Amino acid sequence: MAGTVGGSMLWADRRFGMLAQLLSGPFTRLQYLLGIMLTSVVFSLGGAAVMLGLAAALLGTGPTAPLALGLIFGAITLGAIFFGGLMLLVSALVKSNTAYNSVQILLIFVVNFASTVFYPESPGLPPVLRGLFDINPLTYVADAVRGAYLGTLTTGALSPMLLLVGETIVVLYLATRAYYRSDVSYE
Amino acid sequence: MRGSPLAPSGEPVVLAQELTHSYDGRKTVLDRVSFTVRRGEVFGLLGRNGAGKSTLIKSMTTLIRPTGGTLRILGLDPDRDGQRIRSRIGVVQQEESFDFATVEGNLDVYGVLWGIPAAERARRREALLQRFGLGEIRKRRAFDLSGGQKRRVQVAREFMHDMEVLFLDEPTVGLDVIMRRELLDSIRDEVRRGLTVVFTTHNLEEADYLCDRVAVIDAGRILALDSLENLKRLYGGKKTIDLTVGGVDPEPFFAALPGALGAATEIHRDGGSAVLLTDDPKRALARIVELSSSTGVQLEWLTVRKNTLEDVFLHSVGHGGGSNGAA
């Protein structure tokens, strides 16, 4: 969920006046956008590296093949861009501090717990929750990372990842549009 | 609009023609604004809160795109050359804007953003910390500072980079008298070195102290635009009378005042006080004294003085409790 850093950065920069100040400097809006997306990805990859290190220490084994590591970091990068874009969209649309925090907490809660990050999807789940699990992009990321880590990844994981790519493109488009249309500061 | 929108001489660094901006096509905040700022000039935008000053600054600093008219900054079109313009200007926003860092950290970050080499950055940082009296608080987080200290950091930070035009939106808000004067003097020093300054204020004294020319703006329109001398001369034929009444209910006095003084006298009322602009102060004083006797109010203050920029502003804006009997 380090991917949400980007949205929070945009929110804080707007709230504390830095966005207007930065955008009156020799930078473009796109450069700023790319900057916060890059930060989201770096945070996510940094967090993932720490978690991988801990997992390797606890389990006594870990992925060493370049392909597995590439898959893990690729999936995490994609997830970071998706969730970074999602929070960017929220921060561009929501103007109240309370509303932003509430939406962020709700999203983090639902996205984390309705995914396979902490536990596998149970067969006994109610259909609504199962549906949430299945459409949750974090499930795709978690499954891909787990599969790559344990060496159990099959070609069946390709479809969810392609779906995630599509969802990321849509979210990024909406977020960028909202960001370009939003005010640089709230007065 | 009084005065010429064109600067007397010099290369134009800001050129606005019929500049208009409205939100959602309904609320017009800039209404056909035209003016020119020449190189090396200090140009003041004078107006009340909500007059359109900040919107004008945001237009000139490329933060918003005006919905109509023509704007050129340093000869460049903000629509096409926004980044080039921004690389040659400095902006101090009205709102606080800080990085989560110390005072010196904020200066450093700004230097990094502007691509100032490390050695030069350190030199400029030390010079600015000293010049703006920030040495003692250099290690404190900017967010923890007082309003005046934050403002100083904001202005100082802007001088970390080179610029041709500096836009200041209400730069002295929150500063004490001494710091305000020091800041204005610092800006004056930079102007002597060739900097062009456009700044907004509703503080008439600092506009009088700093500006070569001012534009009085209200409800998105420029009401008067000229050098301070010319603006004051426009009202040179008139004298200003300040009066304050007390004692009984002042309403009958102020209600009868326009009739007693005639249409040639402007009246700007503020509670129990009023500022009057008149061609014939001797006659006006006599009428005021007569009226105070007949209505039973006590004249607590009554003086005649020369016009100031405040009188120009009041005359231009035409508010402040009503003008010429409108109260």
How many structural units, i.e. domains of chain A?
Answer: 1
Assign the structural class of chain B, choosing from mainly alpha, mainly beta, alpha/beta, alpha+beta, or little secondary structure.
alpha/beta
The total of helices of chain A stands at 8
Biggest chain pair contact, residues each? A-B, 15 and 21 residues
The number of distinct helices of chain B, counting runs of at least 4 residues, comes to: 11
Distance between the termini of chain A: 30 Å
Strand order of the largest sheet of chain B: 5-6-7-3-8-9
Order of helices and strands of chain A: HHHHHHHH
What percentage of amino acids of chain A are in beta strands? under 5%
Oligomer: heterodimer
Instruction: Give the strand content of chain B.
Output: 25-35%
Structural class of chain A: mainly alpha
Characteristics:
heterodimer, A: 187 residues, mainly alpha, 8 helices, 0% strand, B: 327 residues, alpha/beta, Rossmann fold, Alpha-Beta Plaits, 3 domains, six-stranded mixed beta sheet, four-stranded antiparallel beta sheet, globular, disordered N terminus, disordered C terminus
What does this entry show, briefly?
The complex is a heterodimer of chains A (187) and B (327). Chain A is mainly alpha-helical and 187 residues long.
Tell me what the structure shows.
The complex is a heterodimer of chains A (187) and B (327). By secondary structure, chain A is mainly alpha-helical. Chain A has one domain (2-181). Chain A contains 8 helices and no strands. Chain A starts with a helix and ends in a 6-residue tail after the last helix. Chain B folds into 3 domains: 1-88 and 163-179 and 190-234, P-loop containing nucleotide triphosphate hydrolases (Rossmann fold, 3-Layer(aba) Sandwich); 98-162, no CATH class; 236-317, Alpha-Beta Plaits (2-Layer Sandwich), CATH 3.30.70. Chain B has 327 residues and is an alpha/beta fold. Mean pLDDT of chain B is 84; it is low at 1-8 and 319-327. Chain B is globular. Chain B has a 6-stranded mixed β-sheet, sandwiched between helices. A 4-stranded antiparallel β-sheet of chain B has the order 11-12-10-13, sandwiched between helices. At the A-B interface, helix 2 of A face helix 2 of B.
